[in-house]
Amino acid sequence: MNPIDTQKKIIDSNMENQTSPQKSTTQAPRKNNRKPKVQSKDTIITNQNQQTIWSLDDFPVAESEGKVRFHDLNLPDRVLKSIAEMNFEYCSEIQAATLPKTLQGYDLIGQAQTGTGKTAAFLIAMISDFLDYPLEESRNSRLARGLIIAPTRELALQIAEDAVKLTTNCHLNVVSLVGGLSYEKQKQILDTERVDIVVATPGRLMDFARNKKVLLEKVETLVLDEADRMLSMGFIPDVKSIIRMTPHKEIRQTMLFSATFPKDIQTLAKQWTYFAKEVYVVPEETTNKNIDQVIYTVEADQKWSILEKLVKEKDERTIIFANRRDETRDLYERLKDAGVNCAMLSGEVAQDKRVKTLNSFKSGSIQVLVATDVAGRGIHVDGIELVVNYSLPEDPEDYVHRIGRTGRGGETGRSVSFASEDDAFLVPEIERVVGEKIRCEYVTQEQ
């Protein structure tokens, strides 16, 4: 399952369960066995003791050839109101390809580039399901209905932020459980608030689940986001343990998303899903054509001066990637001394400060962010104009994820990568992964 060099396509097929090869692959959607969903012509939104009736008439979106409106998906009005407030009108390609399937209850294995709207795709499906099929009896407040597992703290917090926006007009509660933030504060939330949707990193979730602070045996929808990154970061044993705490795959709905599908991920996807639909929204090239890519071949001792000039010549929102924490720290301090409005995002920065830094970068109060790959994986910020690879990544897949921070949502962006005598040997493998030659320019300090 390696679609890197294929034409742009959407493949929709049933994946036969490995553990049940004798069963038909035409399994009916899970919701066929559920009671009819709750229908409502109007939604009454309660806000500070005032009730406002909202309907689709308040959210006009014209039909457009080749585009799918959220109106066309029979979503609950409360979800549509949140979508309207987020200024979404038409589905992205991954949303249009997956929502008709996941809203029926099918399991999903999905592949799409970062920045394509996959987070909203699985959140809309999950939230709509919980509203259409509300609980019929009271239950322990620690029993989660939805569980989303992400590999990094930044990504988990970003997903939780989007989930909060999409649940603004309903009574579903979103709880994020991530390492690096106060364990006691998260424990207090679990002790005092109802748990509907949990967004978590594997390690912290394991801590709470083992201590019965959050209960997973009634999870209705499970989402595994960026499964390939969880594999590369060594989280799969924890993820397996967590999944064993949830209902059997024939009972829960499972959605798995991954940017790449090595054989290990293919095997796990088949183990964890039940007659899953497969959707690949794969461009002809692995990298976004809206990104202007260039490699600067430079002398190692001139990289800093060239970077300083590059950052200062235009007032662009920029992310600079380095391979190591110490290199990230050094670049941050040198940029700061040079008068650049910058901040650092790496594993050595306390999580609460990382959250504040990321929010400042989103708001535009910080112009330049210096980051490592692990920290940068969860950066989903619109309007990033330039990505600089100060050091070429040792894993060529990381190159794709790095430059994917720019050129999001149809916008254009630039990517500049430095290649010196220390790491130029990595270029051919990066070009093989992206499926094209990257323009090279020889740059000196004097230019």
Description:
The protein is α/β, with parallel strands linked by helices and 447 residues long. The chain folds into 2 domains: 13-281, Rossmann fold (3-Layer(aba) Sandwich); 291-442, 3-Layer(aba) Sandwich (Rossmann fold), CATH 3.40.50. The protein has helices at 77-85, 93-102, 118-132, 153-166, 183-192, 202-210, 227-232, 236-244, 263-272, 303-313, 325-337, 351-363, 373-376, 396-403, 427-434; strands spanning 13-14, 43-47, 50-54, 108-112, 146-149, 174-177, 197-200, 221-224, 253-257, 277-281, 291-297, 318-321, 342-345, 368-371, 386-389, 413-419, 439-442. α2 (93-102) runs parallel beside α3, α3 (118-132) packs across α4 and α14 (396-403) packs across α15. The longest helix has 15 residues, at 118-132. 45% of the residues are buried. Residues 1-26 have low confidence and may be disordered.
Brief summary of the model shown:
With 447 residues, the protein is α/β, with parallel strands linked by helices. The chain has helices spanning 77-85, 93-102, 118-132, 153-166, 183-192, 202-210, 227-232, 236-244, 263-272, 303-313, 325-337, 351-363, 373-376, 396-403, 427-434; strands at 13-14, 43-47, 50-54, 108-112, 146-149, 174-177, 197-200, 221-224, 253-257, 277-281, 291-297, 318-321, 342-345, 368-371, 386-389, 413-419, 439-442. The protein has 15 helices and 17 strands.
